[in-house]
Design goal:
seven-stranded mixed sheet; Spore Coat Polysaccharide Biosynthesis Protein SpsA, Chain A; 16% strand; alpha/beta; globular; 265 residues
Length: 265
């Protein structure tokens, strides 16, 4: 089967050599180098073909997902990050040889579920960002596709989910998901005033979509014949060191001291 996985990046980085990976320069629209020339990282750019590159400041890696959805023709399409990758062994980046046998068993491959334990997905978002993003998203779902409201409420009360907007999916399922997702996000963009938000907090569309992926998946399992056995969870590895102390203390400050996140970790 033909598989293409785009790697969202905004800078030059060490990339996997496997041909199934496509490093994709996200937010390429309007970017220039120190000489004022169009910035060229040597990668495919997300402002080619059918694209939403200009929305990258708010949509984050979703401009890569949109580009892959609209411009790639493959049996399976996936999304990873320049510093965050799928892995079969928890140490090395997933290869096409390792992925191939999985495709005979699974329709969707996701990173292992992240657990919050002392927070629901909704309360974690409420403490770290602005809950009105989720409340307005629920309103839109109720208006556009009300059959998903029950799934939305269920997922918001879970204490874990599949994060990072990372997935490898059967193209037909990806079509279904992306149509549903971007219809919601484009409407959300019309309703949320971002004029007073910091750059970091303005990137909430990407964060909301992490939760919406879980809503869509929950609904499909409950109603469409997609089975839990059609989904494989595999490790996600980081190619840069994470400051777990800072991450952990920020998490606790958000919950107990109501300090919103101000940067990535």
């Amino acid at each position: 089967m033909d598989v293409k996985i785009v790697i969202a990046t905004h800078k030059r980085y060490t990339m996997p050599k496997d041909e199934m990976y496509i490093p994709l320069h996200v937010g390429a629209e309007g970017k220039t180098d120190e000489n004022g020339n169009e910035l060229d990282l040597g990668y495919v750019k997300d402002n080619t073909g059918d694209n939403i590159s200009a929305l990258n400041s708010g949509f984050c890696e979703l401009t890569a997902l949109y580009w892959a959805w609209k411009n790639l023709d493959a049996d399976y399409i996936g999304l990873a990050h320049y510093r965050r990758h799928f892995s079969s062994d928890g140490e090395n980046v997933l290869t096409s040889d390792e992925l191939a046998p999985m495709l005979n068993k699974y329709k969707i491959i996701v990173p292992k579920k992240r657990h919050y334990y002392i927070e629901t997905l909704y309360s974690h978002y409420e403490h770290t960002h602005d809950k009105k993003h989720l409340d307005e998203t629920r309103n839109i779902i109720n208006e556009q596709c009300s059959e998903y409201v029950k799934a939305f409420d269920k997922v918001m009360n879970q204490r874990g989910g599949y994060m990072f907007n990372m997935m490898i999916m059967d193209k037909k399922l990806l079509n279904d998901y992306c149509k549903w997702l971007f219809d919601i996000l484009f409407e959300l963009r019309k309703r949320i005033d971002t004029s007073n938000l910091s750059f970091f907090q303005g990137r909430f569309y990407g964060r909301v979509s992490e939760l919406l992926f879980n809503v869509w998946l929950f609904y499909k399992i409950e109603t469409s014949g997609l089975k839990k056995t059609d989904i494989a969870e595999i490790p996600c590895i980081y190619t840069e060191k994470i400051n777990w102390w800072k991450k952990g203390t920020s998490f606790l400050k958000a919950k107990f001291l109501h300090e919103k996140y101000s940067a990535s970790f």
